[in-house]
Design goal:
By secondary structure, this protein is α/β, with parallel strands linked by helices. It has two domains: 149 residues, HAD superfamily/HAD-like (Rossmann fold, 3-Layer(aba) Sandwich); 91 residues. Strand 4, helix 10 and strand 5 form a beta-alpha-beta unit. It is elongated. It starts with 5 loop residues before the first strand and ends with a helix.
């Protein structure tokens, strides 16, 4: 008989909460930092020009995500730079590229998304009970290495056995393989895993395609209920009870 041996978590809007205002502030810092670097190298681009290059980079990355794939973080920054001006990447020295990459990444730490107040107690309890804990995240405009730093600063990093970030594996949810590779690294069978997330397509449909049961967290407002999870809870603090109930009833 199968049991629950491992729990995989989504990151955005499950363990941490982001919003449009924080995203806009990070975008502004990325563009302002890049503008300063380019001006120091004699380029005379406007903020509006860089903003459009950033938006085009987002569109290109989003189209890649729609295929279940992702760019590495450095590739994403390079796309942004070349959208500013064709072949600009080849005209800049390594120091300038590194400085732009720094501004692009570190904007995350200037406008941090708050962590769910139940995250620490939940992860600590699951870990103490012997569950293996994993994480799968589509990283967007922030590299996985910064999420590791943030989780470490919150005292959460050591609870995770495996962390899978899309920019590092070049795959995105809801692709089946990003779930399967995480399960393999956890060293358990997929039948013994529960995935916890907030998104109908990425988390519910993606995990189900991979043969993994799901706990959906939150109200999923504005998300078409194209597939139902095994369990639906209102908040993260209810996940531990749901995991135990799923294990007992399986």
């Amino acid at each position: 008989m199968s049991n629950v041996k491992a729990v995989i978590f989504d990151l955005w809007q499950t363990l941490i909460f982001d919003n449009r205002e924080l995203g806009r502030d990070r975008t502004r810092l990325r563009i302002e930092g890049t503008l300063q670097v380019l001006q120091s190298h004699g380029y005379d681009f406007t903020y509006a020009h860089l903003r459009e290059a950033y938006r085009e980079c987002y569109r290109i990355c989003h189209a890649k995500h729609d295929k279940g794939e992702d760019y590495t973080f450095n590739e994403q920054v390079h796309i942004f730079i070349n959208n500013i001006q064709g072949h600009l990447l080849g005209q800049l020295d390594k120091q300038a590229i590194d400085r732009i990459t720094y501004h692009y990444a570190e904007a995350f730490f200037d406008f941090l998304p708050p962590v769910d107040p139940d995250a620490y107690s939940l992860l600590s309890s699951l870990h103490s009970q012997g569950y293996k804990i994993g994480l799968i995240s589509n990283t967007g405009m922030t590299p996985g290495r910064l999420f590791r730093r943030y989780l470490d600063s919150l005292g959460l990093l050591d609870f995770f056995t495996v962390l899978t970030f899309s920019d590092e594996v070049e795959l995105t949810k809801p692709t089946v393989e990003i779930f399967h590779m995480t399960v393999r690294k956890l060293g358990v069978d997929k039948e013994d895993v529960v995935h916890v997330g907030d998104h109908i397509l990425n988390d519910v449909v993606g995990a189900h395609r991979a043969g993994i049961r799901v706990i959906l967290v939150g109200d999923a407002i504005g998300k078409e209920p194209i597939e139902n999870p095994e369990v639906h809870v209102a908040k993260l603090g209810e996940v531990e009870y749901a995991v135990k109930a799923m294990a007992d009833s399986y």
